[in-house]
Each structure stands twice: as C-alpha cells, then as structure tokens.
Design goal:
By secondary structure, the protein is an alpha+beta fold. About 30% of the residues lie in helices and about 40% in strands. The chain is built from three helices and ten strands, in the order H-E-E-E-E-E-H-E-E-E-E-E-H. The strands form three sheets. A five-stranded antiparallel β-sheet has the order 5-4-3-7-6. About 20% of the residues are buried. The mean pLDDT is about 85.
C-alpha cells in the first residue's frame, strides 16, 4: 500500500480546507480548557473574566460560568485586541458589555445584567484612555 504525502495535491487540498473551516469556526470564539472539557464561547457572549488564584472564571451573558485552568494574564493576552480590558488586578471585562460607569468613592463598572465590577486605582487611567 502506498501512503500519500501530505504535500500531494489532493491530501493538501483536503487538509487546507479542513484547517480553513476550523479557523473560521474559531475566529470569533475563546477556547476554554477545563481539564476534562473544551468549551468554545463566542467573544460577544463573554461578560467578564475573574481571577481565582492560578485559575480563571469566565462569566457569560446567559448566566453561565466556566472555571479554566489558565491564568487571567493568559486571557488578557488572548483578548487584548478583541475589546477586552483589565480594570482590576483580578478582573478583565468585555468593553462592549459596559452599560455605565458609576463613581461613589471609587469607580464601578455596570455590565449587562447589572453586574457591578470595581475599577482599581491602578487600572483607572487605562479604562478612561480607552473611552476618550
């Protein structure tokens, strides 16, 4: 039996097609590994991500949450150009989900579903420089 090389035209064409399909599927999703499952969550469905030691909890617009084995720093790097911003040492938010920003001694971001996220002093400047 003769094995075709991947560089042969038909095999390469099939591989490129499947790779393109996978890339198209993943282009607007965050891949979240939980140890025994892999979740695919659309960026627009993520409200915020909260650090939990060396883990991260991802919260979505439907009230679901997923505990990931990746750090908040990892997600910050992955989502930097996707409209997410770190507003606290333990919190990364989806800027498209911000309803308002309140100030009552400290700044508080109100997300969809009326979830309130505190803004730390050290991240306040980054927040406002992204707004104006």
């Amino acid at each position: 039996m003769k094995v075709k090389k991947l560089n042969s035209y038909p095999a390469k064409k099939i591989w490129d097609s499947r790779k393109a399909t996978l890339n198209n599927f993943l282009k607007d999703k965050l891949v979240i590994s939980t140890g025994n499952e892999i979740h695919f969550v659309a960026f627009e469905k993520i409200l915020y991500i909260k650090a939990s030691s060396n883990y991260s909890m991802i919260y979505d617009t439907e009230g679901n949450s997923v505990l990931s084995s990746k750090t908040l720093k990892y997600y910050e790097e992955q989502l930097l150009d996707k409209g997410f911003l770190r507003v606290h040492s333990s919190t990364l938010i989806n800027m498209s989900k911000v309803k308002s920003i309140k100030r009552n001694g400290m700044y508080m971001i109100v997300l969809e579903n009326d979830i309130k996220i505190p803004v730390s002093r050290s991240y306040k400047e980054a927040l406002f420089s992204n707004l104006f």
